[in-house]
Amino acid sequence: MKKLMMICLALMLGAGVCMAQKPAKKAEKQVKTTVFVTNLDCPNCAKKVENNVPSLGKGIKDLQIDLKTREVTVTYDASKNDDATIIKGFESLKVKAEVKK
Asked: Distance between CA 83 and CA 90 in Å, rounded?
């Protein structure tokens, strides 16, 4: 009888410890910022890119265009997008782009 009580007690204690563990965290969003050198040279071209942000792919959080330096700074969720996909998105808008080194 004592053995049975000890086994039940041990099972209940083990179940309690398992239930007390923290749930696994969901994959955290990785926000990444990349600067692209482009061939944008006029405000109309910049507007075309700004108005077609979905063409650059999913997860775009912010887009800043500097026409003087011809650079586009893109902040995006790295779990949904990457530099190569964004470059393809620029190509679909007839804009040449490459990652700034």
From this structure: 11
Its pTM stands at 0.69
18 confidence band (pLDDT: 50, 70, 90): low
Two structure tokens written together for 38:
């482009």
Q: Classify domain 31-99 at the CATH class level.
A: alpha beta
Among 58, 60, 8, which Cα is nearest to 33's? Answer: 60
CA distance linking residue 38 with residue 80, whole number of Å: 22
Average pLDDT, the chain: 86
Q: Is 43 in contact with 87 (CB distance < 8 Å)?
A: no
What is the Cα–Cα distance from 67 to 71, expressed in whole angstroms? 7
Euclidean distance between CA atoms 58 and 93, whole angstroms: 16
